[in-house]
Design brief:
heterodimer; A: 773 residues; alpha+beta; 4 domains; 6-stranded mixed barrel; B: 246 residues; alpha/beta; Rossmann fold; 4-stranded antiparallel β-sheet; 10 strands
């Protein structure tokens, strides 16, 4: 019979109970969706790497001869090795020249080509195998004759197939880009015999399949050790100390995907926590109210001979069944709908075949945790009404014993109106209920602030990056190994600023990080700001370090850092003279003069300029010209993701606000019904009583908003801190966003309060003053 | 041996730093099959006495024997067990569960007994819970069985409340102002029902009231005032409940 009683109570109080169900549902909906996406996508990634044998080690920094391969293959720990030429060329489309990563190979045993359509590759076979996204977006198909250009030389090829490749799961157009825009540029593989230059194929890269490194898990310490030992052996056997020996962690494709998955994993846990908190608040308010209202009923059940444990189980089962049903259905729906939604979005960024959702045991664990929390909170919420003997429970609860505070004896108190005095006393009497209301409003404001903040941050970062730090309208990207003098001519001609980026390793204490050394010539297009966005010039007296790198290495201004360029064994040690902030590149920056003092030669690969005439530049030495607008366009993808996040946050904020405020209001109404009836009997109008009630709501809302703003900032900082390592994204909230969030919360709260205060009209004076249930 | 023996029973409460007695030094014996009315003004201590008899509260001093067992020493769990097997309660405001129908309110007693367990010290294997429809038929409301309490009149609700109380086949039926919320005619019918339960079925019925007219149907009237028993009177020929007026 108690089960029937439960279902009828659930139906009777459906608004509040549905909110608990929805919160459990949403928490698991997002969690299982994202968890399954991460698990499935990672599994697809591993399967892809395994099927096509992603290389374990990449060696760069010299021209590799046939006997070099034999030497490396002969090393202990090397299963196989191949040499290849990796260059950046152009693909000549009817309307433009697209950047194209070209790889000329001799064999296809390591990091194998994955054919999407067309013929398989075999050694010596002519033609080109081109990435399928580029082919699709530019309407290319097998058998087409296409034109390519490298080092000024144009050559024709027949498209043999469209492909994907384990080293090109994620790739950017160049180092200045922040997001991929596949199809606008691409990658292709050809046989080494197709290399277009007359003086032979420039084999500039060696890839190695090593013993003791597998494709399944992130690079672990053992694999790092294998790479380290092979690094020394390779340098020794090839008699070259400056070779760059890299592993998967140094590959943008592998590393970015892993970082993205880590970010999703982090976010997937954040959602159930937020929704569980809302659900907990809902359970507390609903169950406290229910048991309070059913006090006499509880006493009756006890008097009839039902044990405390059975009655407790009865009330606890509300939270248990609702959260169980919500969580399980949420998990199933999340697996069915969220996985596909996220995978479809991700499939445009990460070119991995057949990603499918995969259920993991974490889902079961989170369901269990959600149900356990809901059950425990239900128990704690109804414990108070269940602890007394039936004789006491059968009597209406005695009013709380109150003492007059000092404030209430002061002159100030006497000057306050009745409504203020009444509400102040009510707040004092019901601290827990008031606190819950404030927490609910704060949570709602927090979510709104962080939602608007996500969008503000992306707007800010785009402007910061391309409007403040880099004010060049165009970037002339030079071909590799273009002599300095030639680059300098471009800089003079186009009034530009020369820049060189070199990858490097940084070390401080036990921590080491990969990053970039940026060397710049004097100019007016690159600007610097400190960690608080104050403009400053780049130091002339040493090196400056990006703020995120400094944080990662736990370095402060004045500390020393050890660093070496990739492919160069010589360690440098410098004092960090300045810390600057940059959202896109992490490492150190210095003027050319400082760089040359370290006995390096300045070899700029880029000239920044504002002269529009560079747009149509088609010189042999120039790889391409990028305009800033194109780079800003790549940020749009990120904006799309932020819009989705914003929609989820604002929905959660509205649900949280409504659930908590409605529950809190109902609870307060039930508790105050006798007082309201008394006020009515004494002659107060309904309107006046409604105003009294709404005044308290205004206080709670204002307190909640004040508390919610810093919490929202913290949440936003957390989201931004979760971005991949090379990005230093700052949580920024513009003034209007504070206003929108506060106003949004206030309007929501006022609407709920106005809706609830309508109930005052229906207070039946006689019943309320007489009735017990 | 009497069914109930109270020896020097007191119940003290502390309010702030002040202690006061709701009942003080009560002694009485109640026999099987008696219809006892405890009469007294508001605040005399009669409800406290009823709560102690029903195992809903424990005395702070004294001994309370039911069928030879000292209930005053019982812990919470044993008191629940005592109520589940021995006590039926009828409240002034009926206290029916509003979300259960009349039938379901009575059928709830099966859950009570099942929950109490077969190993209860009170389980002698001869007391079965009545079928809910029989209990409801006994109070004459078979046709209203599927109605919710809000669809029943006060008198009907009180009769369902009695059906719920007798469904357990309790040895002790406690009634707290059972006619307090009813008009005279309906009140009379309820009293008749209680009188029959005592006289025809041989159950001990204890009724607490401040209405002296109700005392006319009792076999015994105990008057309580200022927390103590002031008189204990046996009535040789109680009135039929239908003849009572107030």
């Amino acid at each position: 019979m108690l089960i029937r009683n439960m279902f009828r109570n659930l139906f009777k109080n459906k608004v509040q109970f549905i909110s608990i169900f929805i919160m459990s549902f949403l928490g698991l909906f997002v969690f299982v969706g994202m968890d399954s996406e991460v698990a499935g996508f990672t599994e697809a990634e591993e399967a892809f790497y395994n099927e096509y044998g992603l290389a374990d080690i990449w060696v760069r920094g010299m021209k590799f001869m046939p006997d070099d391969i034999d030497k490396v293959k002969g090393l202990e720990g090397v299963k196989d090795a191949e040499r290849r030429a990796s260059v950046k060329g152009k693909f000549l489309l009817p309307d433009r020249e697209a950047d194209m990563y070209l790889t000329f190979i001799e064999s296809n045993e390591i990091s194998r080509i994955g054919i999407v359509e067309g013929e398989t590759y075999s050694s010596g076979k002519s033609g080109i195998w081109i990435d399928y996204v580029f082919a699709n977006k530019n309407s290319l198909k097998c058998g087409d004759r296409v034109k390519l250009k490298y080092e000024g030389k144009t050559f024709d090829e027949t498209v043999r197939g469209t492909i994907r490749h384990p080293e090109y799961v994620y790739f950017l157009r160049d180092s200045a880009s922040m997001m991929p825009d596949y199809g606008f540029y691409g990658m292709a593989f050809l046989d080494a015999s197709e290399f277009p230059l007359e003086n032979g194929t420039e084999f500039n890269e060696l890839i190695i399949d090593a013993e003791g490194i597998d494709n399944y898990v992130p690079v672990n310490d053992d694999e790092k050790a294998v790479r380290k030992s092979l690094e020394a052996k390779i340098r020794e056997v090839l008699e070259n100390d400056t070779l760059a020996v890299l592993d998967k962690d140094d590959q943008l494709s592998y590393q970015t995907f892993r970082a993205e998955m880590d970010q999703h994993r982090g976010m997937s846990f954040m959602f159930p926590v937020v929704f569980m908190l809302i659900s907990v608040l809902g359970i507390i308010t609903t169950m406290t109210r229910l048991t309070k209202r059913q006090r006499i009923q509880i006493g009756t059940l006890k008097a009839l001979g039902l044990s405390k444990s059975v009655i407790t189980m009865h009330y606890v089962s509300y939270g248990f069944f609702l959260s169980l049903a919500g969580s399980v259905l949420g998990a199933l729906a999340g697996y069915k709908y969220i996985v596909d939604l996220v995978l479809t979005m991700m499939a445009d960024t990460y070119l991995i075949p057949n990603p499918r959702g995969k259920l993991t045991s974490s889902g079961v664990f989170v369901i269990a945790a959600s149900v356990a929390v809901a059950t425990l909170v239900s128990f704690l919420s109804c414990r108070h009404q269940l602890k007394f003997p039936p004789a006491e429970t059968l009597r209406p609860e005695a009013p709380k014993h109150m003492k007059t505070s000092r404030f209430e004896k002061s002159a100030l108190w006497k000057g306050l109106g009745f409504a203020t005095q009444w509400n102040l006393r009510d707040v004092r009497r019901n601290k827990a209920r008031t606190g819950m209301g404030i927490i609910g409003v704060a949570g709602s404001t927090m979510l709104m602030i962080s939602a608007f903040g996500c969008l503000d941050s992306i707007e800010f970062i785009t402007d910061w990056m391309y409007g403040q730090l880099n004010t060049a309208g165009y970037q002339i990207v030079m071909k590799d190994n273009t002599p300095y003098e030639e680059v300098y001519e471009y800089a003079v001609k186009y009034k530009g600023q020369m820049v060189e980026n070199i990858s490097a390793v940084f070390e401080a204490g036990e921590i080491d990080k990969n990053g970039t050394v940026t060397v710049i010539e004097r100019g007016s297009l690159l600007h610097f700001q400190d960690d608080d966005f104050r403009s400053e010039g780049l130091t002339e007296n040493g090196i400056a370090m990006s703020a995120k790198m400094a944080r990662s290495l736990n370095i402060w201004e004045g500390d020393f850092v050890r660093w070496h360029l990739t492919g160069d064994d010589k360690w440098q040690k410098d004092r960090v003279v300045q810390i600057y902030a940059n959202p896109g590149t992490q490492g150190i920056t210095m003027f050319r003069k400082v760089y040359e003092q370290h006995e390096y030669k300045f070899m700029p690969q880029m000239v920044l300029t504002n002269m529009e005439s560079v747009k149509d530049l088609d010189d042999e030495a120039v790889l391409g010209v990028q305009d800033t607008k194109g780079l800003m366009r790549s940020m749009d993808e990120m904006k799309k993701m932020m819009y989705m996040m914003m929609a989820i946050f604002i929905s959660a904020a509205v649900i949280l606000g409504v659930v908590v405020l409605y529950n809190q209001g109902i609870l307060s109404y039930v508790e105050k019904i006798r007082e309201m009836a008394t006020l009515k009997v004494l002659g107060f109008t309904t309107g006046k009583i409604r105003l009294i009630l709404q005044l308290q709501n205004v206080w709670i809302t204002i307190a909640g908003i004040i508390l919610g703003i810093p919490l929202g900032k913290l949440l936003l900082y957390g989201i931004m801190a979760d971005m991949p390592e090379q990005m230093d994204y700052r949580g920024i909230i513009f003034g209007p966003s504070y206003l929108y969030s506060a106003a949004g919360t206030f309007v929501l709260s006022t609407l709920v309060s106005a809706f609830l205060s309508r109930k005052v009209r229906s207070v039946d004076m006689v019943e309320a003053l007489k009735g017990i249930e | 041996m009497s069914l109930i023996e109270l020896k020097n029973i007191s119940r003290a409460y502390t309010v702030g730093d002040r202690e006061f007695y709701a009942i003080h030094d009560i002694n009485m014996n109640l026999e099987e099959g008696e219809l006892v009315v405890i009469l007294g003004p508001s605040g005399a201590g009669k409800s406290t006495l009823l709560n102690i008899l029903g195992g809903m509260d424990s005395p702070t001093e004294g001994e309370f024997f039911f069928d030879g067992r000292d209930i005053a020493r019982f812990k919470d769990k044993d008191l629940t067990d005592y109520r589940a097997w021995n006590v039926g309660v009828v409240f002034q405001f009926y206290n029916l569960i509003p979300t259960l129908t009349a039938y379901e309110n009575v059928a709830l007693m099966k859950d009570v007994r099942a929950n109490s367990g077969k190993r209860s010290v009170w389980n002698k294997g001869d007391v079965e819970v009545m079928a809910p429809e029989n209990a409801i038929a006994a109070v004459g409301l078979s046709e209203r069985m599927d109605h919710f309490p809000s669809q029943l009149s006060g008198g009907e609700q009180q009769r369902i409340s009695i059906a719920r109380a007798i469904a357990k086949n309790p040895r002790l039926l406690l009634c707290d102002e059972p006619t307090g919320a009813l008009d005279t005619n309906t009140g009379r019918e309820v009293l008749k029902l209680l009188q029959d339960i005592s006289h025809k079925e041989g159950r001990t019925v204890v009724m607490v009231t401040h209405n002296s007219s109700c005392a006319e149907i009792a076999d015994r009237v105990i008057r309580v005032k200022n927390a103590t028993v002031v008189s204990d009177e046996r009535i040789e020929s109680p009135k039929d409940a239908l003849e009572v007026n107030w």
